[in-house]
Amino acid sequence: MKIAYLVSQYPTIGHSFIFREIRQLRALGLDLRVASIRESDRTAESLTPEEQEEMDQTFYVKPLGLWRAIGQHIATLASGPIRYSRGLIYAIRLGGLDLRKVFLCLLYFGEAVIVGRWMEREGLRHVHAHFSSTVALIATRAFSITMSATIHGPDEFTDPAGYWLREKIDTAVFLVAISEYGRSQLMNACDYQQWNKLEVVPLGVEPWALTGRPFRDHPAPFQIFYVGRLAPVKGVHLLIAAVDRLLKEGRDVRLRLVGDGPERWKLEGDVKRRDLNSRVVFEGQIHTDQVRALLNDADVFAMSSFAEGLPVVLMEAMSMVIPCVAPQIGGIPELIRNGIDGLLVPPSNHEELARAIAVLMDDPALRRRLGEAGRKQVLEKYNLTRNTARLGSVFRQRLATP
User: Fold this and answer.
1) Confidence grade of residue 211 (pLDDT, cut at 50, 70, 90)
2) SS3 category, 4
3) How many domains, in total, are found in the chain?
4) Predicted confidence (pLDDT) per residue in 279-331, tens digit
5) Which of 79, 146, 283, 369 would bridge with 258, disulfide CB 3.0–4.6 Å?
6) How far apart are CA 201 and CA 176, in angstroms?
7) What is the pLDDT of residues 324-359, one digit of tens each?
8) Under 8 Å between Cβ of 342 and 315
9) Same-domain check for residues 197 and 223
10) How many CA atoms lie within 13 A of 263 on its CB side?
11) Do 50 and 184 belong together in one domain?
C-alpha cells in the first residue's frame, strides 16, 4: 500500500510524534512517501541519524524555489489545462469574498500543484495530511487523487468555516480525530450522513523510552515545568501568575519554560514586571532528548492553555511518572481523569491553578500516586505501537480496493 504523507514541516521538534508515527507505519508494512511543505527546523548536522535518514527521503515543496515552481505549474497547465483550471477555480472559490483568504488559497494552490506532480511521478494515488489538509484538499481538484487527514485541533474547531472543515469532510475518504472530543467537533462541522467517515485514533508515546525520574518528597525549590509553544493560546501568563501567587504565600517554587514562540518577549516582560527573574527560567527551544533529560528534574508538569486538542507532551510527562496539572478543556479530560491520573483545573483561573500545585506540594503521597496512575493510563491507552497499529488498520480498511 503506497501512501503519500503530506506534512507542514518534517522532521521538526514540535511535531516529533509525526516522525514516530511514520516510522512505526513503515515498520508495519505500509509504503509511505513523505512530502513536506517546509524544511526541517534544524540543520542536517543537528538531526539524529534517524531524522537525517527521513530528511534524505523527503520531498520538500518550498525549497524548490520560485522558478522551478513556476516550471511545475507551466508543465501541469500544458499537460492538463482543464484539471489545472479546475483546481485554480476551486482555490479561488474557497477564499470567497475575503481577499486575504483568496490570496492564501492561491498560495495553497501553488503548493498543491507541486505536491500533485510529485505524487504522479511517484505513482501515488492517495495523500494523508497532517497540518496541510487544505493543500491536499485543493490537490484533489487538480489531480486524480484521493485524500484523508488527521485533524488535531484546536484551531480548526474554533473556526471550522475558516479551515474549510465541511469541504474536507465532504472530499476525504476518511478523517482521523485524535480524541473523542475532536470527533465531536468534526461531527458538528458536517452532516450526519458524513459521520461514518470519522475515525478516532489517539496519538501515543513510547513509554518504554520514558522512564520514571527520581521522586523527591520535599524538593527545594519545587520544580514546575511547562513544555510547549510560547503562544497566546497557551495562556502561559496564567502559569506565571500562579507562580507569583505561590511565592507570595511563602512557597519555594521555580518555573521552567521549555520552548519558544511569538509570545516569549511578552512573557519575559511579565516576569520582569513581577520581579520573578530568579524564579522563572526560559530554557528555549531544545531537542526532544534534551527536553526529556530536563524533565528528570520536574516535580510537577503544568499547563494553562485556553484551547487544546490532546497534547502529546502531557502523555510524555505522565509516562515519566510526573504528576500533571492541566486545564479541563478539549481532549485533555480523556487523558487525565481529575484526582485519578492528575489534576484538572478550570481554564483562565490562575488561582485554581496555584491551588492545585500547592495541594501537590503539600502531599508527596498524592504526587507519587497521581504520577504512577498517569503512567499506567498512558501505557493502557496511549501506547504508540498499539495506536499506530490501529491507524494502519484504518488505512488498510478504508483504502482497500473494492
Assistant:
1) confident
2) strand
3) 2
4) 999 999 887 778 888 999 999 999 999 999 899 999 999 999 999 999 999 99
5) 283
6) 6
7) 999 999 999 999 999 999 999 999 999 999 999 999
8) no
9) no
10) 18
11) yes
**365: domain CATH number?**
3.40.50.2000
Q: Are residues 323 and 217 in the same domain?
A: yes
SS (H, E, C) 80-113: CHHHHHHHHHHHHHHHCCCHHHHHHHHHHHHHHH
Q: How far apart are CA 156 and CA 164, in angstroms?
A: 8
Query: Do 15 and 151 belong together in one domain?
Result: yes
286: left (phi over 0), alpha (psi -120 to 50) or beta: beta
pLDDT at 15: 86
The pLDDT score that the predictor gives to residue 402 is 57
Check residue 401 and give its pLDDT: 64
Average of per-residue pLDDT across 94-101: 93
Peptide bond into 262 cis (omega under 30): no
Distance of CA 59 to the CA centre of its chain: 21
Q: What is the mean pLDDT of residues 175-182?
A: 97
Indicate whether 225 and 331 sit together in one domain. Answer: yes
d(CA 316, CA 319): 5
Query: Is 239 within 8 Å of 349 (Cβ atoms)?
Result: no
N- to C-terminal Cα separation, the chain = 14
Instruction: Grade residue 157 by pLDDT with cuts at 50, 70 and 90.
Output: very high
Same domain, 277 and 389: no
With H, G, I as helix, E, B as strand and everything else as coil, classify residue 394: helix
pLDDT at 209: 76
Q: Are 3 and 33 in contact (CB under 8 A)?
A: yes
DSSP 253-317: EEEEEEB--TTHHHHHHHHHHTT-TTTEEEEES--HHHHHHHHTT-SEEE---S--S--HHHHHH
Average pLDDT, integer, range 271-276 = 97
Q: Which domain holds residue 321?
A: 207-381
C-alpha cell read off for 402? 473494492
Q: Which residue carries 479551515 as its cell?
A: 163
Residue 375, pLDDT above cutoff 60:
yes
In this structure, the answer to whether residues 74 and 182 fall within a common structural domain is: yes
